Amino acid sequence: MKKPHLQDKYSLFIDGQWKDASDGATYDTFCPANGERLATCAEATKEDVDTAVKAATRAWQSWKNTDPIVRANLLLKIADIIDANKEHLAMVETLDNGKPIRETMNVDVPFAADHFRYFAGVVRADEGSAVMLDENTMSLVFREPIGVVGQIVPWNFPFLMAAWKLAPVLAAGCCTVFKPSNHTSLSVLELARLIADVLPKGVFNVVTGRGSRSGQYILEHPGFSKLAFTGSTEVGRSVGLAAAKRLIPSTLELGGKSANIFFPDCQWDLAMDGLQLGILFNQGQVCCAGSRVFVHEDIYDKFVADAVERFNRVKVGLPWNPDTQMGAQIYESHLKAIQLCITQAKAEGATVLCGGDRITEGELAKGCFMRPTLLGNVTNNMRVAQDEIFGPVAVIIKFRTEEEVVAMANDSLYGLGGAVWTRDINRAIRVSRAIETGRMWVNTYNSIPAGAPFGGHKESGIGRETHKIILEHYTQQKNILINLSEKPTGFYP
């Protein structure tokens, strides 16, 4: 695939127009695979965020009254535009994020288009209710758009998570001020360029910049009716507190330390595939990554030997090459943080079974490349088994009984994802129900289709996305109570 055409400079997208930051501030974005500069982006000021909120507020006065069929058709148009520009958007995402082109072409971009189509269908099917509470009292219940929403997404799935946020907020009849990560702003900015003439001015606004600056301005602005955030638990806590302070709701999809559980009767090749999908997809930079691998003692030795052999065969390479199976970590300091976690694990007694270091040879020397890593001799109370690493590093822990592994899986601050591998459907359902997470996969991993609710328990977040239920979070319920009797109450003379 050819290198996509990128603008040398990207401005803020506010009220249907491209605008420089009010103070002219900018930042550069770089490709994590080779360090090359990709583009310059505007750094939004407090004034810029305020301008975006005011534009969204004006637009909402008419957008909230737009017929559902009109909104649905616009979502379908956006999906068609994404499909028509699939290769371009996929390569932009690959260059900006470092993930393999096979992932962006087959997951990030097509799944994003599908989310717009899914919510186009959902909004057409949405219904309220009418009920007679008694002979003379009718109750009408329906939902109204909540207003202007501040939406913030991280760097690991910039384009797909933009769709997760944008499709339902637009379907619900809300307007948005959207902030991507400053590390990966380009795919969202390219989307804004492609659909600039599709939506009414001010409905969709993009402000770029650092989370500590532009992101904080969003948290502090009084003009939002809701905040929606995906990212770390640490930052998510501050988002939730900012929303609570203003008595507005928040949707938070946060960190994880998910359990990937393998029983002796698992289908072997399927299980090995699931092990790798769980921790190597997107270089392990996945909030629901299967980073805690629990293996039954009866298959432990065989499992470790086969897993190590397969991990060592994974093709780590330049992300735009079609045969690359694992690309680059997002940036240098994050790679060093992953390495530090491995060093700490070894100090606690863990053993590196494979990988454990960055790649410094050949064409990968200029980038942030990590070898797929498995750690053994790990107990569930070690930091490496409790802290989110957010890289291609999994710990393998032996277990004996179903009760023991459920207890270990639940011994975590997080509760986002997890999986169980077995041919026993009763065991699969029993274990899945017992583990305290928002999602459990059975004989698969990292499957993220539209129409299935995704979100966490405990410190993994609040709310659910990728399902029609999110429309309840972007709307508020209205009740109209109608008296059908023509007789006065008789309470007063």
Number of strands: 23
**Helical residue percent band:** 25-40%
Largest sheet: 7 strands, mixed
- The number of distinct structural domains comes to 2
Oligomeric assembly? single chain
In angstroms, what separates the terminal alpha carbons? Answer: 83 Å
Number of helices: 15
**Helices and strands: which structural class?**
alpha/beta
* CATH-assigned fold name of the largest domain: Aldehyde Dehydrogenase, Chain A, domain 1
The CATH superfamily of the largest domain appears as Aldehyde Dehydrogenase, Chain A, domain 1
Overall, the morphology is: globular
Provide the residue-averaged pLDDT. 97
Query: Could you name the ranges where pLDDT drops below 50 across 5 or more consecutive residues?
Result: none
Question: What is the level 1 CATH name of the largest domain?
Answer: Alpha Beta
- Strand fraction band? 15-25%
CATH architecture descriptor of the largest domain: 3-Layer(aba) Sandwich
Rg, please?
24 Å
**Widest β-sheet, arrangement of strands:** 15-16-17-14-13-19-20
